[in-house]
Design goal:
The chain is α+β, with helices and mostly antiparallel strands. The protein is 34% helix and 13% strand. It is built from 2 helices and 3 strands. The protein has a 3-stranded antiparallel beta sheet with strand order 2-1-3, with no helix packed on it.
């Protein structure tokens, strides 16, 4: 069962250990004022790891920079030629 925190109009805060299906309290447990509101806190998110930004966002920028500067243009033609040599069909050996 979760613990919920509530705040009254007077500024008192209190916690209740209750089920999700239980109705919220109508009055403050400290002073008896009504209505009370549930206090919501944002969830904590931690992005940990050395490759978070380089794997998610960095690769597109590096590729665009290479295209602009022409670093990989000559290599691409050579690689295609190497692939063509490797994929030539071999003659069938007579049995």
């Amino acid at each position: 069962m979760p613990i919920y925190e509530y705040r009254c109009p007077q500024g008192h805060t209190f916690e209740l250990f209750q089920r999700m299906t239980d109705p919220p309290p109508e009055t403050c447990q400290v002073c008896g004022e009504a209505p009370v509101t549930k206090v919501l806190y944002p969830a904590a998110i931690h992005f940990k790891g050395s490759g978070f930004y380089s794997t998610d966002y960095g690769r597109g920028n590096r590729r665009a920079a290479q295209k602009e500067s022409g670093d990989g243009a000559g290599d691409a033609g050579e690689k295609k030629a190497d692939k063509a040599d490797k994929t030539e069909p071999k003659a069938a050996e007579p049995s």
